[in-house]
Hints:
By secondary structure, this protein is of the alpha/beta class. The protein has one domain: Aldolase class I (TIM Barrel, Alpha-Beta Barrel), CATH 3.20.20. It has helices spanning 19-32, 49-55, 82-87, 98-103, 108-121, 133-137, 141-156, 181-198, 219-223, 240-249; strands spanning 8-12, 39-43, 62-65, 92-95, 124-129, 163-167, 207-211, 230-233. Strands 1-2-3-4-5-6-7-8 form an eight-stranded parallel barrel, surrounded by five helices. Helix 8 links the parallel strand 6 and strand 7. The relative contact order is 0.17. The model has no long low-confidence stretch (mean pLDDT 94).
Amino acid sequence: MGSARRALVAGNWKMYGDRAAAVALAAAVRDATAGVAAEVVICPPAVHLDAVSHAVAGSPVAVGAQDVSAHALGAWTGQIAASMLLDIGCRWVIVGHSERRSDCAESDALVGRKAAAGLAAGLCVIACVGESLAEREAGRWAEVVTAQMRPLIDLCASYPGRFVVAYEPIWAIGTGLTASAEQAEEVHAHIRAQVAAAWPEAAPALRILYGGSVNTTVAEALFAMPDIDGALVGGASLKATDFARICSAAHVP
């Protein structure tokens, strides 16, 4: 990873675990990552955010949500405002995960608005981009990622310190497949170049994570790449020991 950027590893717990399991996992991650130099974030289901925040209070482990509303407080049934997340101890939020883009029909524009809402309220944002298997095989990954990044660049340029991009090839999420370190680096470098073209002062410091079946086997090779600054971890983040190994593998300047 780049010498000026601190590694970041975030765990996306998705829709797993009851309250007791979430608290236990949070405590286990807190203990297992003690002394790790990388920045560590855990993102439990929304109903467990308050309990998990209390479980890691006073430790370096930060808590993030898996989604946020593009709106401030108001008549938006079922949605959660960024200010509410901050109020219960969240520092981070994931936006634009491929599962939300597909299952909830979230557009690139909406993802950009969600990212902007989180940043404006004071949250740090991990914005996800990535192509499908069909798009990868058709050689369209650059076109797809460029389109996904465009509203994020337009709306998030004012917050370079709290804005993070996660490249998650959809074909490698929950499949056990992982992009090779070289494939991932090619896309990460493309993202950084796209940001540099519109936002040159921020591009060198922008952290870009890899997400897509990240595990202890592939972490070292991924983190050795110059433009890969950490990981957004799915299934492996549900096991504290595996997640801690991935955090330990992240190189920190």
